Amino acid sequence: MELFVERLLAGVTNGSIFALLALALVMVYRSTGTLNFAQGEFALFSAFFAWWLVGTGLPVWAAVIAGMVAGFVLCAAAERALIRPVQRKSELATLIVALGLFSGLNAAVALIWGTDTKVMPSIVPNGLEDYFELFGARVYGDTVITWVALAAVTILMTLLFTKTELGLHMRAVADNAESAALTGVNTSRILMLGWGLAGAIGALAGSLATPLAPEQLSVTTMFPIFIGACAAALLGGLDSLAGAVIGGLIIGVVEAMVTGYVPLVGGAMQQTTAMVLIVLILVVRPNGLFGSKELERV
Amino acid sequence: MSTVTDRERATEPRTERSPVLLAEGSRAYRIVVLVIIAGIIGLALIGTTLSVYRMSQVTAVLITAIAVIGLNLATGYTGLLSIGHSALFGVGAYATGILILDYAYSPILTLPIATALGFAVGLIVGVPALRIRGLYFSLVTLALGIAFPEIIRRFDDFTGGAAGLLIRSQFLTPPSWTGLTRFERGLWLYGLSFVSFVVVMLLVRNLMRSRTGIAMRGVRDHEVAIRSNGVDVARTKVLTFGLSGAITGYAGGLFAMNVGALSPDGGSFTLVKSIELITAMFIGGAGTLLGPLIGSTVTVFLPELTSTWTTGPISGVLFGVTLIVLVFFMPEGIAGRLQIIARRFVRVVPPDHPAARRPTTSTQNSGGNATGQKSVAAGGAEQPPGPNSDDASSEGSSR
Amino acid sequence: MRTSKYGVVAVAITLALAGACGTNTGGTTSGSAEDALSSENCADPAAVTEEITDELVVGISAALSGPAAQAIGQVLQGAEARFELANQNGGIDGVEISVIKRDDGFTPERAKTNVQALIDQDQADVLSTLGGGQVDAMSDYQNEQCVPLLNAISSVPKYYDPVQFPWTTQDLPAASIEEAAIARLIEERYPDGVEVAMASNPNESGQAYSEAFEAAIEGTDIKLVKNEPIVDPATTASTLEATGAKVLNIGGIGTDCLSMMNAIGRAGWKPELVIVPSNCTDAKLVFEPAGEAADGVEILRWFKEPILEEYEDDEAVLEYVDAVTAAGADPKSSYVLSGWAMADITVNALEEAAASDDGLSRIGIMKAAQSQDYQAPLFIDGVSFSVDGESDPFGIESFRPYAWNAETKKFDPVGEVISAD
Amino acid sequence: MTAQNVLDIEKVGISFGGINALTGVSFSVGQGEICGLIGPNGAGKTTLFNCITRVYEPTVGSIRFQGADLLAMRPHRIVGAGIARTFQNLALFPSMSVLENTMSGASALGHTGFVASVLGLPASRRAHREIRQHAWELLERLDLIDVALEDADGLPFGTLKRVELARALIARPQLLLLDEPAGGLTHSEVDELGVLIKDLSRSLGFSVLLVEHHMGLVMGISDSVVALDFGRVLAQGAPREVQENPDVVASYLGKAA
Asked: Residue C203's closest chain B neighbor by CA?
């Protein structure tokens, strides 16, 4: 029982991180209709920025918030200056710009802060004794905070989309930017906002993930998380917030369980197993678990 | 191409912005083709005079170019964005490596098997494309890309696992008929890669100039429309992906022979390689014939170039910036841009093009978009293009 | 089917190797190391025996860009500082050493191109590199051209073999040697046997450690109860904890050790003995970040290091600190030290070659490098770098165990020097 | 239902997200007939086209073409069976030239395998050449020779409409579905188009199902007219009858025909 709970908790925690970054991917997809290949590196940059601020003596929570602001500005600026001009050209062009950002941001992080491993402190105390027990398994504050952050972001996003005029506009732009513009929605602002929010969510994911990540904070930290988040967003359905959350949790838990309970496959084939499962699900549901089916308009 | 333009400019009086029409099969066209063939042979021969190290770099360019041609078929021409071609490359490479080391195959005989395995894996991955589309399909390819290194590590009895495979040079001696020694295998691999590249490029050219090629591009541009035109979209996608896998697998086989060291880590067969291939395809020009070669040249030489005048992360920043700048100013890629420029001067037209058939009369022009093309003889009209051409032309002139 | 000459050879070798393990060494030469080390099979036999008189070029292929660039930059700083010291001391018998570096971005393709460029274009007399994948990409060409690849900072099992790879040596202790010493250590602590759990990374190094440890405990009372790959450290830790093993042996590289120490700490698992391999040696990058969780974790070391209290005032250590500090490097970094050590052992081989009958030629250098018994000033007493052809291809074979003290942030010795034999 | 009909649509219904786009639509198109399909925007005209060409799957009803059940056919077989179409908002291939766009319409005629294509076997080349020659004929006939080598991307709307027509015609259809072919044309061009459609239909012997807002064109060339509104058939019959039908007049009230 204890072992099972431990594995479940580990899976849920990893899954929460995937889900947070997947939410960022969904935000971008809903505004621009593209997969932001650089989302993980935006998060990396923001996390390094937050780490640097902590070094200057800022409290961790303030540094994380500052990192989120930086993520917001960076992502919004990238949308306005780099993505929007090429978006009309082709899907591939947008992807290549994102790849350029991916490579450029990663190298910029290395240039500014170096490639050695950093230790990003957690928002909450995370010493060896800062835990409580749940069915015999230890639960630490820094894992709980990822669950809380995921729940909070999910609720806030849902409220934003369902209860506010801004959210209504965002949905209108996601649905059909042209007709939204005709009804007087400032699409330019909405698109930047969508990317900005994605950047902020990603920054949060990055700052919360690195104290837990095996490689702590280094230039390679975010790539595996980004891959997990991509898979989560696609599994859930690229335009579904709920899908991103559930997709992330499924992937996290499946990977942990496969490692633990399928000795034949074991840790060595963990990702493969998860990916094969996702592909099988997609064969049954080609637009993800909760994604909306696109009607072919001709 | 430019030499032709100069020739035409010199011999034919022509006005601005009216490209010379070069009819396929005409004398001028044949001369151009001969010049190109001579050029290719010339380039190949120049390559043999390079130092071992430079020659090996050119070989690496050619091998990458073949892999990119495979990717280009699926992604550039057919619009199936693949992030998993690193795995198809790896399948070919490991097939060659394992066959040489464990089954004592002579290297060149492993290539058909590497190709066949690439085809088979491509087909299997292509099958989900029947239902899964767009970015969701890219996820399927991503799954392949992620799974491959894990599978290699897991089945280490067979693949050497994380420790990798090392194919030593005595297994890679050129075939005896070449008369080359084992120390000259760089030359042999260069020749093999060069010939392979030319052949693969010709095959892809054939394909793209056939009805199947039109169907593939139709699938990319507008799936509903091409289906309404009678194309079995599902079959086209699956077979394209299979063929793409076959070509990339073949390149993988050559790669194994060239580098000799295969490992699931280190970026030869991981997503890093996929990104490299996609980048090369885009820089060269997605959906162009020469793009893969140009793009591969850039991606093989650029890192070396940047590391000579910068160090460490700056080269990475530069790479990212270059990529973005390129998208802004040359979204069609280098080959795509060259094609657009060349078209201003010369246009190759089918032999039965009405303008090529009627050298002197400029065609009537009632469409909304008058381009002012002026037909120039360019040696055209010297041969009847086909049995139906008379009917067609009489119908045309009767109006 | 036509069977060509090399096909027959290949069949013979495949059959010969069929009973061996899964890795292919793929060699043809048989007989002794002396036979293997000759100029006859070389591409240019004359160049191999020619004495180097003007300048000795050391060509290095390394990842100067990418995620590891900073660490590798430090390694190279250490190496260059040592070569510079040799030059200040009059070079190798008057011959200056110069270093040429080429960036391989940690990819085998570029390492392969680099080895060709270093040999053909840069006319390198001696090569070196870091990382098993790089040696794999370089070894074949460099052996064929008979250019020594000396003291590569890697520990790939197949290159401790002067018969198959007469022109290649590595300076890190082989996984088989280190794990044998670890098994010794465990035996000393638990004379009546004990259950051991192992966590190893899924990459080349982890595979080597796993295989080596399994081989080392054969015939002992040590029982390996479970060997889990480190993919998700938390899950690995809970799975291993469930075995109830008293000893945890971690086989991995720096970040694996850090993440596993964190993970077992958080799982609340306190094995009586936790051992990490020597490449997790860096205090600042591995042990300090792990905090309390690293307390008491043991590691085998063989250098006198500035971070070890008892050697702080050692003459050799002071010389090292001065030299690397002058070069702008951090003497406390384990990367700088490993680069220095690589160059130090190389310089020793070069000096021995210069004094030998073959002189400072490629063959002379390689012969010297294959029969070296070097008590480097920086080695802990009782440790030496000794190789002797195929009878003893392993350089470092003795170690001293140290335990990390999380409170003082220092390593304390926890026993005498252990030998792997 | 007579044996003379090429197309029989019977009680076809389809809904999207709970909204009925078509409800119990039934009518037929006779052999050689030009049948106009009219109705205000959103009446379901294009949806019906999409049902016939199997872009959409009708929830109920049957569609038969020369007696064969279209709904049992795989979508890409429709054109081979003899039905070609054009699209309201253009569905050309922007990266292909006008010539290639036209040639793409012949994809169902004959079959060239992948292997033959890759190897450039004579069969593949011959098929390609024959289609190209047919394309030239059509391009001449539709006045598109001058733009034949231009990419479809960036040509004027009216020109592209004709390219779509050429692409549909190259399939040698027995039934041609035209979705607002007069869109973007001037008055005189519309008249020319009417003549052209009628001519082509006569000389090549195909039936036409024509969706068009331009009433002059529909009433001028149609043999019969079907009026749709809110997914139902309002009226059908001779052009004059339908035009005068009070329901049709009501549904078009306020709209200039």
From this structure: B162
Cα–Cα distance between D103 and D98 in angstroms, integer?
9
B162 touches chain C (CB under 8 A): yes
Distance CA B142, CA C173 (A): 38
Confidence of residue B13 (pLDDT cuts 50, 70, 90): very low
User: What are the structure tokens assigned to B245, written together?
Assistant: 């896998």
> pTM value?
0.90
Do C97 and C55 lie in one domain? The reply is yes
C85 part of a folded domain: yes
Chain D residues with CB under 8 Å of B200 CB are none
Instruction: Report, in angstroms and rounded to the nearest whole number, the Rg of chain C calculated over CA atoms.
Output: 22
Residues C136, C50, single domain; the answer is yes
Considering the domain architecture, whether residues C181 and C259 belong to the same structural domain is answered as: yes
Angle, CA of A259, A261 and A263, to the nearest 5°: 75
* Residue owning tokens 């993930």: A209
CB of A110 within 8 Å of a chain C CB? The answer is: yes
Q: Are B22 and B266 in contact (CB under 8 A)?
A: no
A128 near C293, Cβ under 8 Å?
Answer: yes
Of C268, C285, C292, the CB nearest to A116: C285
Give me the residue label for tokens 């902590």. A54
Assess contact for B347 and B20: CB atoms under 8 A: yes
pLDDT digits (tens, 9 = 90+) for A210-227: 888 887 888 989 999 999
| Token reading at C389 | 């052809």
pLDDT band with cut points at 50, 70 and 90 for residue C186: very high
Q: Largest Cα–Cα distance in chain C?
A: 70
Of A13, A119, A267, the CB nearest to C289: A119
> Chain C residue closest to B60 (CA)?
C109
Asked if residues A98 and A34 have their Cβ atoms less than 8 Å apart, the reply is yes
Cα–Cα distance between B211 and B287 in angstroms, integer? Answer: 16
Tokens 């639509």 label which residue? D25
Query: What dotted CATH number matches A2-284?
Result: 1.10.3470
Domain annotation covers residue C28: no
- The DSSP line for C367-388 is HHHHEEEE--TTBPTT--EEEE
Residue C123 lies in a domain: yes
Can you tell me the mean pLDDT for C176-201?
Answer: 95
Q: Minimal Cα distance from C138: which residue of B?
A: B261
Q: H or E element: which one contains D90?
A: none
Q: In sequence order, what are the residues at sequence separation of 6 or more whose Cβ sits closer than 8 angstroms to the Cβ of residue A163?
A: none
| Residue C337 belongs to domain spanning | 36-173+317-390
> What total number of domains does chain C contain?
2
Domain segments of chain A as ranges: 2-284
pLDDT band at residue B399 using 50, 70 and 90 as cut-offs: very low
Same domain flag for C244 and C155: no
Question: Are both C56 and C200 inside the same structural domain?
Answer: no
Q: Please check whether residue A192 is in contact with residue A107, taking contact to mean a CB–CB distance below 8 angstroms.
A: no
Same domain, C192 and C245: yes
- Whether residues A103 and B135 touch (CB distance < 8 A) is answered with no
User: What residues form DSSP beta bridges with D60?
Assistant: D13
Largest CA distance in chain A: 62
User: 3-state DSSP: chain B helix, strand, coil percent, rounded to 5?
Assistant: 70, 5, 25
Closest CA to B256 of B380, B371, B168: B168
Same domain, C150 and C186: no
Q: Do B104 and C202 touch (CB under 8 A)?
A: no
Q: Which of C4, C14, C24 to mutate to test the interface with B (most CBs of B within 10 A)?
A: C24
Are C260 and C243 members of one domain?
yes
The complex's ipTM? 0.90
Residue in D with minimal Cα distance to B240? D114
Partner-chain residue, chosen from D93, D120, D155, that has the shortest CB–CB distance to B222: D93
Asked if B169 is an interface residue toward chain C (Cβ–Cβ < 8 A), one would say yes
- CATH code, domain with C203: 3.40.50.2300
> Do the beta carbons of residue C320 and residue C288 sit within 8 Å?
no
